Amino acid sequence: MPSGAISLDGLSVDFDGRFELVDITWTINPGEHWLIVGANGSGKSALAAVLAGEGSSISGTISGVPERVCLVSYERQAELIEAERRKDDADILDVISEGTPAAEIIADASHDHDLAQELVDSLGLRPLMGRAFRKLSTGETRKVMLIRALTRNPELLVLDAPFDGLDNKSLGWLQAHLAQLAATVPMVLVLNRFDECPDFITHVAYIDDGRLLETVARDDARAMAELGKLLHLQTTDLEVPAADPSAELPPLDPGEPLVCLTGATIRYQDNTVFENLDWTIEPNQHWQLSGPNGSGKTSLLALITGDHPQCYVNDIKVFGFQRGSGESIWQIKQYMGYVSTALQWEYRVGTGLRNVIISGFFDSIGLYSKSTDVQKALADEWLALLGMSHRADEPFNSLSHGDQRLVLIARAMVKHPPLLILDEPCLGLDDINRQLVLALIERICASGKTAVLYVNHRPQDRIPGIEEHLQLDA
Amino acid sequence: MANYFNTLPLREQLAELGKCRFMHLDEFEDGVEALKGKKMVVIGCGAQGLNQGLNLRDSGLDVSYTLRAAAIEEKRQSWKNATENGFTVGTYEELLPTADVVLNLTPDKQHTNVVETVMPMMKEGACLSYSHGFNIVEEGMQVRDDITVIMVAPKCPGSEVRAEYVRGFGVPTLIAVHEDNDPNGEGLALAKAYAVGTGGHKAGVLMSSFIAEVKSDLMGEQTILCGMLQTGSLLCFDKMVEEGVDPAYASKLIQYGWETVTEALKYGGVTNMMDRLSNPAKIRAFDLSEQMKDIMRPLYRKHQDDIMTGRFSETMMADWANDDAELLGWRADTAETPFEKTPAGDMEIAEQEYFDNGILMVAMVKAGVELAFETMTAAGIIADSAYYESLHETPLIANTIARKKLYEMNATISDTAEYGCYLYNHACVPLLADFMKPIKSDVIGKGLELDDTGVDNARLIEVNEAIRSHPVEAIGAELRGYMADMKRIV
Ligand SMILES: NC(=O)c1ccc[n+]([C@@H]2O[C@H](COP(=O)([O-])OP(=O)(O)OC[C@H]3O[C@@H](n4cnc5c(N)ncnc54)[C@H](OP(=O)(O)O)[C@@H]3O)[C@@H](O)[C@H]2O)c1
Ligand SMILES: [Mg+2]
């Protein structure tokens, strides 16, 4: 580690029992400028605040933090406004206090007064200097906070959402100023919007649920793009698109289980994969199925989906159909969405993304039926949710592995099936893509009336909202 | 038994040959209803038997298998295929007397034997179906009067029949009713329901006749589909080696080249395949194919004539009677050819390079497709049928060569096709000997490597016009249009 590096090693920090950062290991080397990103509530502000000495350490170490760390954040802004308000409350004089003028708030904190004056002009604060700090608008107090920080000769500048609420002119000016400052002062920024990332940023840290999950070098374009998608999925206001109102599935009896296996057995000439398995999946019940490789997870699923020929010699009832009683496979499949690596291999087609998603209405690989305008519109909504609107006509087989998986999940969900089966949906994906897929599944679990059956061989890969668990043994 | 076709008067022969109509999707609105609840028993569980059965069962139909006693006792592959897939398997005695539909999916050469054995066990008014009409047309099998005889013939290898169904699609399928055996007039309804059960209706169904199916199927498989690809593979490989091309490269260019260049046929017929070449290369390919067409025309006519007169089937049945001595010998010879014995190299060959360095292969495909189509239609086979049996199936067969060369092709196609393929190859190799002599690596192996790719305008227009105006292109555009209507997105 080069000297002068800031280093967090296994650091866990508590914030008044409200939030915890967990086991953060992170190094900021000299010359690096970092951007911290994450969903709302992920802990990105907490991580920034730790650099400014906030929170109480539970375990681990932090070292190399310089003396003058200047932090601008909503929390700091709120604290200052609160302090001003308390000053007023404490005032027992019966004169109504005007509060501390903005000019004084700046002067109190600044080391470089000339620079402070320049910034006041540049950010258009001059006419407000005499006004009480707490009377300023949020955007104006934010500018005051920035000026305080920038004029203290910081050795590390930590700016949490510095661009929020700034008018365009101030924004442009501030960005230019930071770019200049970056030559001498290391910076850590927290931004909600990935596309606002300034050019001088060299690294990006991604945080979720209080954990630092990913650090990406700016010049790794692929990882940057994936991170962008992940943030989109976690932060977009777009909802999971609705079902097609004009093509409702024949209704199921709400009192009946979706799946009921009795004494299920798969046996070949020379081996028995499993035997005598009973399993019932009720509507809206989320299940995790785990077990080591070879324990028969995929075969078990195939009994349910009808892709295993021995489904015809087992006692299986799915969606009200006793298997082998004259039902067709397409009557079964219409009630299910299905995603697996095997499906992804099968789905080696040059079909455009929109059509791949529409094919979910027909349970087909490729699209062979005419689609309606409603179906097209719904597919486009899904693409928007995935942040892929501009790629609607790109061929599916030109997509990265992770993107294909996302599109296939959208395809499986587009008809809002009563049962969504995800067979190792994260298999073969790197961390960012795993996060992406899990984020999408989490949104789906929370979104409606679909029971999710999630299969993986790592029981620790859990999805919030999945309560039931079936474990197969080798 | 006599050749059935030859017993008909010319008028009826022509009428039967000319039967072929592309059916519309709305003709299949009844789905599998006509077969619902009926007991379907498949004889044989090989390539077609297993895969058709899997589809029919997944379509909600009642399917079980009957195998000859030895296959059950010895637990042969066919028995394993059926039991591991969860089907009921029984002897003829156990299953046939209650069967409503009996699907004969045994090899063609066993049909007479099989049908004679099972017919007495079939119940009154049952239905017997085939996936190829050889037994009825060429051997003149007489089926009991009360039995309905139909044909549902997928125009694809069995593995494709299943794979396409699982994708939610199907393979183009030909259906027919044997007019002499349709006592209750229900043959067509049964054949349509069966085609729906296999998924064929989604990809297009041709309503045809036993006769048109046999005479066109035999012609296609012997000539362009298998014969031409085998002859082309052997000649092109030997030529490249003679010209000093790296044998590993030559092997790869051919093994994957057929698949790559014929893939272009799927999208836009011969025109599109030729358009993948540069202008000078296109003109060269055109000239080569014209030359080859002149040389090979009599051979194509001979194959069609022998098929029509029954001479071909007689020859082949004589070999059946002789324990397939010729077939097995020719199969062994093929395995010993330099092309088969030289593994493909692991060099990269870009998609376009297969065209640029395979001008002669493109010319062979063009010549074969056009000749087969011309010869079939001249013999009274309708254009739709001729299209499916020539251009349409070529890429499907080419795929098999890409997998494991000629061995794989000949293992996948029927013995009948394989036998005809060797007959063609034995005649065609010597026929093209003089043509091949002056051929250099510029048209096979290395590409034209021209500094100036200019061509004469008038000549290019003439060539394009000739390619585009061939009758296989018009019917092809129409039939591919139907497929596109069904929004097949490849
Ligand atoms: N392959 C194709 O591409 C294709 C395409 C369209 C139509 N077809 C037609 O489909 C039919 C079946 O062809 P295929 O390629 O599926 O055949 P295949 O793979 O060779 O299978 C034939 C099956 O029949 C059984 N069999 C053989 N001899 C028998 C006998 N004497 N009695 C009873 N069963 C016997 C075999 O089982 P055991 O030997 O274990 O008894 C085997 O299961 C043929 O009419 C063919 O023309 C084939
Ligand atoms: Mg054929």
Distance between the ends of chain A: 45 Å
- Proportion of residues in β-strands of chain A: 15-25%
Q: Compounds present?
A: NADP nicotinamide-adenine-dinucleotide phosphate, magnesium ion
CATH-defined topology of the largest domain in chain A = Rossmann fold
Q: What does the largest sheet of chain B look like?
A: 9 strands, mixed
Report the structural category of chain B. alpha/beta
- What is the radius of gyration of chain B? 23 Å
How many strands of chain A? 18
For the largest beta-sheet of chain A, the strand count, sense and barrel status come to: 6 strands, mixed
Indicate the CATH class of the largest domain in chain B.
Mainly Alpha
Helix and strand arrangement:
The complex is a heterodimer of chains A (474) and B (490).
Chain A: E1 6-15, E2 19-28, E3 34-37, H1 44-51, E4 56-63, E5 69-72, H2 74-90, H3 102-109, H4 113-122, H5 138-150, E6 156-160, H6 168-181, E7 187-190, E8 203-208, E9 211-217, H7 221-235, E10 259-267, E11 272-281, E12 287-290, H8 297-305, E13 315-318, E14 321-322, H9 329-333, E15 336-340, H10 341-346, H11 353-358, H12 373-385, H13 401-413, E16 419-423, H14 431-447, E17 451-456, E18 468-471
Parallel strand pairs in A: 3-7, 3-8, 5-6, 6-7, 12-17, 12-18, 15-16, 16-17
Antiparallel strand pairs in A: 1-2, 1-4, 8-9, 10-11, 10-13, 13-14
Helix pairs in contact in A: 3-5, 7-14, 13-14
Chain B: H1 4-7, H2 10-17, E1 20-22, E2 39-43, H3 47-58, E3 62-66, H4 69-73, H5 77-84, E4 89-90, H6 92-95, E5 101-104, H7 111-118, E6 127-130, H8 134-137, E7 148-154, H9 158-166, E8 173-177, H10 187-197, H11 200-203, E9 205-208, H12 210-242, H13 247-275, H14 279-309, H15 311-321, H16 325-335, H17 338-341, H18 351-356, H19 359-378, H20 383-392, H21 394-412, H22 415-431, H23 433-436, H24 457-468, H25 471-485
Parallel strand pairs in B: 2-3, 2-5, 3-4, 5-6, 6-7, 8-9
Antiparallel strand pairs in B: 1-9, 7-8
The complex binds NADP nicotinamide-adenine-dinucleotide phosphate and magnesium ion (MG).
